Automatic annotation (TrEMBL):
Protein name: Uncharacterized protein
Sorted UniProt keywords: Membrane, Transmembrane, Transmembrane helix
Keyword Transmembrane helix belongs to the record: yes
Chain ranges passing through the membrane: 12-29, 35-59, 100-118, 130-149, 161-178, 248-266
Domain of life: Bacteria
Organism: Evansella tamaricis
Length: 282
């Protein structure tokens, strides 16, 4: 095993590689707005996967050693994996319509990275198998391709799911930002478990994202205000029940208002993706 202080560097190197891949994708592609929507949605899909596998089943553990607090450290590894490495690669493959051989090649690449990280002691399996990574990432690349096709065709169901994915992705990342600033902690009492924190944060964010997606499609100012006020009441009850630890409800309320304000913009981008497809097909 490598020394802990070096754990972060393989994660950082991968971030640089995949960030360059993302820049290349947006530099060369024409349908940038569609790709932004797809990227956010792909990240949301990846987060849903992480919700089940990491938060509830706890089948593996990231150990990048970015933070001393185990929860934040594990979350930082999950964010890099599910919001950077795999989604950035999926976007590259979809944008340039690369074939199944390339998809399989990248899936093998991620499987080999996982094996390397296990040997280095910076990723730990707890029931997970590397072959699952190979199969699921390969399927994920195909889902990304089909998702963009449905988006550009204006499929109503996929548009709604995409908005939910984008809202959920934004919500989770803003909550994690509050946790990193020591403004918020999920879990009952002081000695909450790592698994409890994962379950509470992801369940909280996912349920609230359903509400915010729904109210965005209603488009009613009164409904949005009611959601914000109702959310303050819920957060107050959670605070008193010690299910969340927060000194003031103001930061988390600001997050709610920000997400509800961004959601209509996301909805417009999703609609623009279909409009772009119509204009290019004429």
């Amino acid at each position: 095993m490598i020394r802990k202080k070096w754990n972060k560097y393989p994660y950082i190197v991968l971030f640089i590689i995949h960030f360059i891949l993302l820049l290349f994708t947006f530099t060369k592609a024409n349908n940038r707005k569609s790709l932004v929507v797809l990227l956010f949605s792909n990240m949301g899909i990846a987060y849903l996967f992480e919700y089940i596998v990491l938060s509830f089943l706890h089948l593996y553990r990231y150990k990048p050693e970015f933070f001393r607090k185990n929860f934040l450290d594990e979350i930082s590894g999950a964010i890099l994996s599910q919001a950077v490495y795999v989604p950035f690669t999926a976007l590259f493959i979809t944008a340039f319509k690369l074939n199944w051989i390339v998809k399989l090649g990248f899936a093998v690449y991620f499987m080999l990275i996982q094996k390397l990280f296990i040997k280095m002691g910076i990723f730990k399996e707890r029931g997970w198998k590397t072959r699952y990574t190979l199969i699921l990432i390969y399927l994920y690349f195909h889902i990304s391709d089909q998702w963009l096709r449905f988006l550009e065709k204006g499929n109503s169901f996929i548009q709604k799911l995409t908005l939910y994915n984008m809202v959920q992705f934004t919500c989770i990342n803003l909550l994690v930002a509050l946790e990193m600033m020591h403004k918020l902690t999920f879990g009952r009492g002081y000695y909450h478990s790592l698994m409890e924190q994962h379950k509470m944060e992801t369940s909280y964010a996912s349920l609230m994202s359903v509400l915010k997606t729904w109210v965005t499609y209603i488009g009613n100012i009164k409904a949005k205000a009611l959601v914000v006020v109702g959310k303050i009441v819920v957060d107050y009850i959670l605070k008193k029940s010690r299910l969340i630890k927060i000194k003031s409800l103001i930061p988390i309320t600001i997050v709610d208002i920000l997400v509800i304000s961004l959601a209509p913009l996301y909805k417009k981008w999703i609609g623009d993706a279909a409009l772009y497809s119509d204009s290019t097909n004429k």
